[in-house]
């Protein structure tokens, strides 16, 4: 079976551009030579602390950022081809759920207007079909059906994240990139959203790239884990094995630093 | 589900109690006056053709320079014997028309440039903004003169000139806002929803920028009317015999000393129009600016308002460094004060660490801020209870005494030191200042003590780092500075409000270790506010679980974690994934949710 995401020798450098007077701006290598693959139907977690390059990697995968060098394949198709086709080509295949759910919804649009865009532009559904799809989506994320006429500020963080997930699902993608989807939520809400994500994965046959800094959360939901440190993947293995017997020194430090009950 | 319903209910109430922009505008007396005056002027100008006034361009040399109140000419006549009142009304119509159209044209092109430039960024932005800079490099009146000189005098050309001159103002303003919005997550999300760049600018960004455009317009219309008048005054705008406020003034100028009254009427009219528009514009700005609407800019008082309905008299027992009895803090609502903290009691001994744990909205932070009257007031009010520090009731002290406790006996450490440290002063100076507020020492001594504190909190290279600015430090180092500042005056109690939430796990572990060491070294009492049971387990001796402004369970940390009594505590603990638990965690949560759903139904 073909891989959902395949990343080979990926590099992303920020800055380093030539300035007007011949100098170069400060250069930062956010992602250094990363190679990994997300199998179909799998949840691959990327763990790392702030500045480790995990969000940059995720943004490149969905086409929001262009790589400096290296290759990516999304569901078997070359990244460059998708990029040439534009944002819609990505949107149909892969969707992104942001950390801050409230910031990822336009404050001046109703939820209905926000959800309408992917259904209309990516799926090309007519109005009746869009309406019925929207109802299905609200059902899937367990939100009441009058959600569509409300504005983002009327929802709590957990509800807003459900809506953001519904928006991502609207495109009927095969792959979802979840960038710290539960970090901004209260613990009890966090648990509910995790269960929801797990259910949706089965229901819609999804593959997840799950980005997080919280090891315990990662352990509960992922099949494999990649640990990133200063732009490099220092360890990659099955969740169980990685948490039981970490090989890299940094992984060990991460695990021992996590506060325990 | 009932929780969700309750949340929605609260939202609805809030929605209703928040005044609309229109109500706010009308509550502002000056803006309301401006609004009515400009409305009156506009109505008169619009119905000019229907008014029983003579033809404004009809000359009658026999009736030159008639004074105010002459028969048939209420405001007299000018040097050609034309009726000043008629010319004034028609002139007002033209001035308003030109001013408003100029500002609409400037707003349209300026906003378009600002939106594109801010959204595209990079080279496009650079190119467009340098163009705008070139426009701005000329004094506006010179530029307007140059444009009119090229196009030739005339009202339409004056309008173009004024529009062009004002484009940079809009472009810069709108670009600034757009840059901030273009990198927001909802814009990325819209791109992934398949929207094109144009449609993102028009349907995602523009609605968020619109209030700013309206505000900018409302504050520039008056200015544009003045500029039109200025050009006409110089003879470059309206051409004779057409009346316009500026040209009326210009024509009256020659008779300034012999017949001053001819210039008075148009002069006053310009004043009235511009003044009322500016008052209204300021009002519109205040009403539309969400920060002003939320009352954020109204200055809070030094100490939270204290209006206690019940003051428990019972003296705290034992050696408590801090004791809180039945504390109640409320926020002003439409139906009187609504309590956010409802009768919270706890005590904290010397050298002890109490964890106050709860989810967002549980009132844990408000509790912490209430202890020294730090809740912003309005809208906060302490409505009951008692806070004793070393046996003294804080809430009955005078303001100055309460403020002397802050940073003295009791110090706070907040979540993100980047927002609590001043960005423009070195960290050494800031800690030194904190010392000098409470201790009579010289700048030099204070500085030396600051370096010592940096050593105490294990900041690397304390001497050199003392002259660093907050942005030069990492998050963990900044939090160390925050802790150093809290230690500045040898406090007895430290209140730490989520001090490690913004930090990475490895850094969090270091900061928690540091707090632990300092507590033992200095015998500090630590009130630790957090949402994380893991952190509580690591450093707190006692824990109090808060929900909806109440403490639902309290006790020794070990005990509460091992054997939680209250359902809410049990639920919270069940919802925290534990390392090593793996996928079993989600199974457990699923079972819990199922049980709740069945119990709820």
Number of helices of chain B: 24
Radius of gyration of chain B: 33 Å
The N- and C-terminal alpha carbons of chain A lie at a distance of 41 Å
What proportion of the residues of chain A form beta strands (DSSP E)?
A: 15-25%
Total strand count of chain A, please?
Answer: 10
The CATH class designation of the domain at 5-100 and 174-257 in chain A is Alpha Beta
* Rg value of chain A: 19 Å
Query: Counting H and I runs of at least 4 residues, what is the number of helices of chain A?
Result: 10
| Span between termini of chain B | 10 Å
- The oligomeric status of these chains comes to heterodimer
Portion of residues within helices of chain A: 25-40%
Tell me about the largest β-sheet of chain A.
Answer: 6 strands, mixed
Helix-strand makeup class of chain A: alpha/beta
SSE order and pairing:
The complex is a heterodimer of chains A (261) and B (601).
Chain A: E1 5-15, E2 27-38, E3 43-47, H1 54-61, E4 69-74, E5 77-78, H2 79-85, H3 87-93, E6 94-97, H4 111-122, H5 127-140, H6 157-170, E7 175-179, H7 187-204, E8 207-212, H8 215-221, E9 224-229, E10 232-238, H9 239-244, H10 249-257
Helix pairs in contact in A: 4-5, 4-6, 5-6
Chain B: H1 2-17, H2 21-27, H3 29-46, H4 84-120, H5 122-137, H6 140-151, H7 155-182, H8 185-192, H9 197-233, H10 245-253, H11 261-288, H12 290-293, E1 305-310, E2 322-333, E3 336-348, E4 353-357, H13 364-370, E5 380-389, E6 392-393, H14 399-405, E7 410-413, H15 417-420, H16 427-438, H17 443-456, H18 462-465, H19 475-487, E8 493-497, H20 505-522, E9 525-530, H21 533-539, E10 542-547, E11 550-556, H22 557-562, H23 567-574, H24 584-600
Parallel strand pairs in B: 1-5, 4-9, 4-10, 7-8, 8-9
Antiparallel strand pairs in B: 2-3, 2-5, 5-6, 10-11
Helix pairs in contact in B: 2-11, 3-4, 3-11, 4-5, 4-7, 4-9, 4-11, 5-7, 6-7, 7-9, 8-9, 9-10, 9-11, 10-11, 16-17, 17-19, 19-20
